[in-house]
């Protein structure tokens, strides 16, 4: 049974087609790097597969469950770190994680133990009464990741998780993600940092104008492009690169 299965997934916003007939399947324990330039349909796709947007057409099955028929059952099994984070900023960090943990049915002792471990791993030590609204951008990213992990999801969706994160914590997060994959958690990561995808993600999908332009392992994709780097492969598939010359410089 695939961990995630998309079949002819389409999303229209008026006359604009944000996602256009997207089909792909991921086995449990897959680690997918989802790439595309701005406006390619990555975030829209993640919002649909996590139940935040309703598709115009097509189907989504998560762990064998049709998300349209049983959205709550799907949401119990997934963790989501959206790009805009969508935090409850007038709670403290511990209060926010306690709220999230309760939503997933965790008891207080479990929530507090996991929160302390996550805070320690991610070097997150806010002042006792500091509201999330007063956190730095990087700290907000960290608390959003804590919220995505605290209930032990079977599938984890991460939209630009390393943006604003310091180098030391980035290393820790990479180790956490690789450990999760080894334990059978399925991960889908979107980022514009191609080097990061090359190092972390065994599978790569490239979107452009809502369509799937490439899907497979890095070696498979390189094999179709005569061994090009991921950057050259990506630019070649999506096109549109301009020269770096400016008329006044």
Would you kindly provide a brief summary of this structure?
The protein has nine helices and ten strands. By secondary structure, the protein is of the alpha/beta class.
Fold and architecture overview:
With 249 residues, the chain is of the alpha/beta class. It folds into two domains: 160 residues, P-loop containing nucleotide triphosphate hydrolases (Rossmann fold); 55 residues, no CATH class. The protein contains nine helices and ten strands. A six-stranded mixed β-sheet has the order 6-7-8-3-9-10, with helices on both faces. Strands 2-1-4-5 form a four-stranded antiparallel β-sheet. Strand 1 and strand 2 form a beta hairpin. Helix 3 crosses helix 4. The longest helix is centred in the last third of the chain and has 16 residues. The chain is globular. The chain starts with a strand and ends in an 11-residue tail after the last helix. The mean pLDDT is 91.
Strand order of the largest sheet: 6-7-8-3-9-10
Q: Which range best describes the helical content: under 10%, 10-25%, 25-40%, 40-55%, 55-70% or over 70%?
A: 25-40%
> How many alpha or pi helices?
9
Q: CATH superfamily assignment of the largest domain? A: P-loop containing nucleotide triphosphate hydrolases
Topology diagram in text:
Layout: E1 4-13, E2 16-26, E3 31-35, H1 42-49, E4 57-62, E5 65-66, H2 71-75, E6 78-81, H3 93-103, H4 108-121, H5 137-149, E7 155-159, H6 167-182, E8 186-190, H7 194-200, E9 203-208, E10 211-217, H8 218-223, H9 230-238
Parallel strand pairs: 3-8, 3-9, 6-7, 7-8
Antiparallel strand pairs: 1-2, 1-4, 4-5, 9-10
Helix pairs in contact: 3-4
């Amino acid at each position: 049974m695939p961990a995630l299965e998309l079949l002819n997934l389409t999303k229209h916003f008026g006359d604009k087609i944000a996602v256009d007939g997207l089909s792909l399947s991921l086995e449990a324990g897959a680690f997918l790097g989802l790439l595309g330039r701005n406006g390619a349909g990555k975030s829209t796709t993640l919002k649909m597969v996590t139940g935040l947007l309703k598709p115009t057409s097509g189907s989504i099955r998560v762990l064998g469950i049709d998300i349209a028929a049983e959205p709550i059952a799907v949401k119990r099994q997934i963790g989501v770190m959206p790009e805009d984070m969508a935090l409850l900023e007038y709670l403290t960090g511990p209060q926010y994680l306690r709220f999230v943990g309760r939503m997933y049915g965790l008891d207080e002792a479990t929530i507090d133990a996991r929160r302390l471990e996550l805070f320690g791993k991610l070097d997150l030590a806010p002042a006792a009464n500091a509201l999330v609204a007063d956190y730095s951008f990087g700290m907000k990213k960290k608390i959003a990741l804590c919220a995505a992990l605290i209930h032990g999801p079977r599938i984890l969706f991460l939209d630009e998780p390393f943006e604003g994160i310091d180098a030391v914590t980035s290393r820790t997060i990479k180790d956490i993600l690789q450990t999760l994959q080894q334990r059978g958690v399925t991960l889908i990561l979107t980022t514009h940092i191609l080097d990061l995808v090359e190092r972390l993600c065994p599978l790569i999908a490239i979107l452009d104008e809502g369509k799937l332009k490439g899907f497979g392992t890095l070696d498979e994709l390189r094999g179709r492009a005569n061994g090009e780097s991921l950057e050259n492969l990506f630019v070649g598939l999506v096109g549109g690169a301009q020269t770096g010359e400016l008329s006044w410089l």
